[in-house]
Amino acid sequence: MKYEQSERLKKLPPYLFVRLEELAAAKRKEGVDMIDFGIGDPDLPTPEKIVKTLQIAAEENENQKYSSSQGEKGLREAVARWYKKRFGVEVNPATQVCITLGSKEGIFNIAQAFVNPGETIIAPSPGYPVYSGASTIFNEADCIKVPLRPEKNWLLDVDECPVDAKMLYINYPNNPTGATCDLAYLQKVYDWCQQTGTILCFDNAYSEMCYDDYRAPSALQAGCDCIEFGSFSKTFNMTGYRLGYAVGHPDLIAGLKKCKGQIDSGAPIFIQKAGITALEMYHDDGTPPSAIKNNMDIYAERRDVLVNGLRDLGFDVAMPKGTFYVWFDCGMRSDEFVAKMIDLGIIVTPGPGFGESAEGYIRMTVTEPVEHIKEALVRMRRASVGTACPPKNKDGKNKDQ
What we know:
Elements: H1 7-10, H2 16-29, E1 35-36, H3 48-58, H4 73-87, E2 97-100, H5 103-114, E3 120-125, H6 129-132, H7 134-137, E4 142-147, E5 167-171, H8 183-196, E6 199-203, E7 227-231, E8 244-248, H9 250-263, H10 269-280, H11 290-312, E9 325-329, H12 334-343, E10 346-347, E11 349-350, E12 361-365, H13 370-382
Helix pairs in contact: 3-10, 4-10, 5-9, 11-13
């Protein structure tokens, strides 16, 4: 018997990183040593204090039972305390905090909870694929993709957005561009959403991944009539733990809880215990612990080596102040550049995987050691990728023709 997928599922594009892994696997079979700058998965370990908490908690019987879809009271209270320390924002852990299975799940389910068929979701392009993909398609909603532009520092311009949308997703520090924003920008977006009756969904998963004395703001500093998503994945190198949180207006949190209550029973309690330890590592003034600072120092060194190396090869690359991504115009079609790099044993992510407007762009992570980054740059130079090989326009012609 052959089973046909639903029309809804057929509309979903293939997940970008699955295809990249298939290409890389084929090269590995040929014996090629692959250097992976593709998916943003930290190579650094979870801080030891967090791991020990999890190990101890997992041995206790009461932590081996079902949690709840809204999350354990202790972790919700820890999130509220952290928001007060980190952003100076007071939130009620009973009504304004919900624990999620990573931020991705919450980002998807908030649309499930509030967007009706035929209503409009605004998503940035380029942007995290869930905004314009599953969140839109599974709700039979319309998606307006608003292009982010380098001349606007990759900030979404609300003046380009429709005023009759139900929901708006934004994300800063930004995946994939590494762009950052200040509180004045968030205030402008928040005020626009208030004026137009649009639900503001702020993806703040990279709030703690910042460099050069930049500190990311929270949308809740602009006002609490919105919902913000955070994650333990990147900050604490806990991607496999699948733990995140949503904070915001009680009605939005209630809708998210109701939706989650139908489909999950919450993150494992022993993982939530580890989450409490993670947040309590922060100092009373909101500054991160040494474990996080040390991680960011490592990422900063890698960022500098990668960006400066790409610049030496002739690429125009901005030095990001947030995330662990490096974003640049590769001078040709993105898929052509990806193919060249795969042949060199280097995995990078094509810009169009984050939106059609990102054709010609590439995203690279700094989740590889410095020696691997330097080796990749050597391979690129040997293969004349960059200044030794004149960059091409997106139509395939040399730029100097």
